[in-house]
Amino acid sequence: MILITGATGFIGAYLVDEMIREGFDVLATGRNKSAESYYKKMGISFMQLDVTDKNIFDKLPKINIDAVIHLSALLPANVIDYDPREYINVNIIGTINVLEYCRNNNIPKIISTTSYADVQNIWKKGEPINEKAHRNFKFKGDHAVYVISKNTANDLMEYYTEECGIQNVIFRLPPVYGYGPHLEIYANGKYYKSGFQIFFEKAMKGEDIEIWGDNQITRDIVYIKDAVSAFILALKSNKAKGLYNISSGIPLSLDEQVKTTIKVFSPKEKKSKIIYCPNKKNNSSSYIFDIRKAKEDFGYNPKYIPFEKLLIDYKKEMKLKRFPFLIEGRKKIKNI
Fold first, then answer.
1. How many angstroms separate the CA atoms of 219 and 42, rounded?
2. What is the pLDDT of residues 296-333, one digit of tens each?
3. pLDDT score of 334
4. Which of 75, 100, 159, 219 lies 20 to 30 angstroms, CA to CA, from 252?
5. Does some domain include residue 207?
């Protein structure tokens, strides 16, 4: 059996769905009661779990757990009232509780995630960052304590590998695109629509779309289904160990993103037009990650590229609305 923490979140929902499809025996855990109803209706084992409560781990199975996929985390995008202690409680103490659960019950493998902002100070257009790059992040803004907490969690996983022999795998994820709860985000406690949401909402209405600043800024994103494939491949691999970049490995310019969004989402009779606004401030930065290590160690190969292929599948997911609790989760701030 594979135990998944944070199964009530965005990545967790898609991961559980695909793992069941592939025949895995899964125990989904999380705090969202709407998700509990959904999973039980689908015949999927589910247990309520708050990773910050070490006592609740005594209620989890103690035998026949082959691995834990640890997705529970507090993210800046879900935080209105900033309290650095919450990042420590969820992302560090929560991870210790999961690792102790693994140690006490001889669970040999754990897979988790980390922030791509841990190397934000060395982001540079056209220069892929590999896993050997030293951490270099900003000690300012709403991501700072989040990154510190995730870095500490990663170090704890390394410690438990050295001390207890637990095989740890950590995925550094850039923005994960997919139909779910992250179209509305919070930055420094204030609500914003993501750029992606603004683009496709305007495209669907055939409205003009403004591109602020440098329209050739490039980012490296990943589609939810490609991210999920990486978890399953790493789960099956004995070689997978340590940090991996999980992204598309391809730079996507702001200009290309908007043009492709218009192509896929705009009605034929009323195509959106692009208005370039180079004098308006755009806070985005260019970055790209090297994904060769994941390809070599466990055969990771993103399928939803180029960006048009991603958007076409995204559009299908919008129509299906497979995970209703994710949409309900948009109204909730803390998604664990």
1. 37
2. 999 999 999 999 999 999 999 999 988 888 876 554 44
3. 40
4. 75
5. no
Q: Per the domain annotation, does 313 fall within a domain?
A: no
**Which amino acid is present at 327?**
I
E strand intervals along 220-271: 222-223, 242-245, 252-253
- Half-sphere exposure of residue 238: CA atoms within 13 angstroms, side-chain side: 0
> Do 89 and 25 touch, CB atoms closer than 8 A?
no
The enclosing H or E element of 327 equals helix 324-328
- The answer to the question of residue 65 being in a domain is yes
Q: What is the DSSP letter of 135?
A: P
Q: Is the dihedral of CA 15, 115, 325, 30 positive or negative?
A: positive
CB 67 within 8 A of CB 108: yes
Q: How far apart are CA 138 and CA 270, in angstroms?
A: 43
pTM (whole model) above 0.85? yes
pLDDT digits (tens, 9 = 90+) for 249-289: 999 999 999 999 999 999 999 999 999 999 999 888 999 99
With a CB cutoff of 8 Å and minimum separation 6, the contacts of 43 are: none
> In the 3-class helix/strand/coil scheme, how is 80-108 assigned residue by residue?
CCCCHHHHHHHHHHHHHHHHHHHHHCCCC
CATH of the domain at 64: 3.40.50.720
Residue 178 tokens read as 């997919």
Q: Is residue 191 part of a domain?
A: no
The end-to-end CA distance of the chain, in Å, is 21
Number of folded domains that form the chain: 1
Helix (H) or strand (E) holding 154: helix 144-164
Residue 87's alpha-carbon distances to 44, 200, 218, 257, 336, in angstroms, are 29, 32, 29, 32, 11
